[in-house]
Amino acid sequence: MKQEKSQVKTNWRAVGWRFVDVVTEYCQSCSLAGFSYIANHNLHFTERLFWLLCIIVSTVGVYHLISQYQRDFTSRAVSIVHESLSPFAKVKFPSISVCELRFKTDFPRNVEEYVESLGTDLNDPYNWEVESYLSFVLFPYQYTTGMFVRCQPYEQCEKCAKCPKTDYRKLSLRVHWTQSVVHHWEILIKGLLQFGFNCSDLFNRCTLADKEFDCCKYFLPMITPFGRCFLFNSLQNNHPESQHWLPAILDRSSHLEMDLHLTRAALVSVLNEEDVPNIPLPTVDVIVLEGQHKTLQFHRETMVNDPGMKDIPVAARDCYFPDEVMPWSMYKAYSFSACISDCTRLYQMELCNCSVYNMSPYPDARYPDCDFNGYLCLESSSMVKQDVKRLFRISSPTLHCHCLPSCTEGDLKSIFEDQISTKRNVRDTNVTLLMPVWPTDQYRRQVLRSKLDVVVSIGGILGLFLGASILSAIEFVYHFTLRAANTSLMARRELERAATKFK
């Protein structure tokens, strides 16, 4: 037994000395500066120690500089500059959203018929409280605190109309569904059929640069955080290759003007292609009430990105591209406004296991819509409406709301809003969206440090301090794999030959 242990120790000792020989041989033949002096037994001990200290100091310097470079990469990899446009450059008209508004007590007749079918008031034949509740369901921006408590007095009355308790998404579709709409949207993506918005009842006439176009072909319906809206050239419910995407690229001979003739009050917003109308966020918009003709003048400066921007990590560029959609998002394109809506929905789910239906453009089993009890739960937590400041203050182990701007998000500014005329006893409205000044500048997000810059910088540091290159790395791998194996094999063969010769 003692003999076996002694033999094992001898074997391990031999392996250790063999490894030392391999390392010594590598230092003698490698291309790294200074290593050959350490392994040179012909030099004095002090000279070899001197070169060992030099290599240690150089290695520390390499570590420090590369670490500093990595820390600075996130803050210095991208730069945003303001540059001039060519006088012959064409301009792309921004996306537009038209969202329905309820003006005073005006309601579609089918909504009134639906309220009448539910029952009466305690003393009157028509229940105005239920109508107000339905108004909130159809127009979420009209929510006021305590709205759900008003429904309680009618629960014990058999003949009274009662507030609907479930299926608010279906209810918002039911009261706006007509057969003509079904026929019109059969040509659209299947996901859009569910909304049932009556486009022809909202739009009369649309023109862009004095050229008329089919409103209902290019304004596509969508449920947004604001409510029911129609979006023009939006990445959220359309795409540039679609037949419903209008090529809104205009040259100097065109008027940068869109004219919308509507049949009722509406909120008209100017957006970036990836944005959605969102109440708590500042936007360039105009509210036009019945009988009004308004003009909104705005200015736009686009944001363009260098081709290599997508290769830069998100932490370095501080933005997401529209196609970098989060797994939990309900939207087809990333934007700051869509991210805020997603975060609101997730926080509502965390509080009450449901979310307000207009926080999801499409129904999804993962995020069920709130029923009446769900709304009561959200109201007790003051989260029926979005609260952006509260979202950013949330400390939750499951909710990580770090919304960054979109990389393609341009700068939109409202210049002037003018009410040209008002006609009494007329429901039709008219909105003119105008860019009075031809854009002369744009923003550009530039790549300061690409992947090639990283390779060059780190390679330069290694070459400066240690004389290393890509061949040095190959040499290191070669010496401790292929060459070590071949050396061991040749030594074994030599021993076998010696043993055979001895016999």
Quick structural summary:
The protein is an alpha+beta fold and 503 residues long.
Task: Walk me through the topology.
Elements: H1 2-29, H2 35-38, H3 45-76, E1 78-84, E2 91-92, E3 95-100, H4 109-118, H5 128-138, H6 168-174, H7 179-184, H8 190-193, E4 203-208, E5 211-213, H9 215-218, E6 219-223, E7 228-232, E8 249-250, E9 257-262, E10 266-271, E11 284-288, E12 292-301, E13 303-305, H10 314-317, H11 336-352, H12 372-380, H13 388-393, E14 411-422, E15 429-434, E16 441-447, H14 451-466, H15 470-502
Parallel strand pairs: 12-15, 13-16
Antiparallel strand pairs: 1-16, 2-8, 3-7, 3-10, 4-5, 4-9, 6-7, 9-15, 10-11, 12-14
Helix pairs in contact: 3-14
Task: Give an overview of the whole structure.
Helices cover 38% and strands 18% of the residues. Among the domains are: 124 residues, no CATH class; 147 residues, Acid-sensing ion channels like domains (Acid-sensing ion channels like fold), CATH 2.60.470; 61 residues, no CATH class. Helix 3 packs antiparallel against helix 14. Strand 4 and strand 5 form a beta hairpin. About 4% of the residues have low confidence. The protein contains 15 helices and 16 strands. By secondary structure, it is an alpha+beta fold. A six-stranded mixed β-sheet has the order 5-4-9-15-12-14. Strands 6-7-3-10-11 form a five-stranded antiparallel β-sheet. A three-stranded mixed β-sheet has the order 1-16-13. Belongs to the amiloride-sensitive sodium channel (TC 1.A.6) family. Keywords: Ion channel, Ion transport, Membrane, Sodium, Sodium channel, Sodium transport, Transmembrane, Transmembrane helix, Transport. This is Sodium channel protein Nach. It is found in: Membrane. Pfam families: ASC.
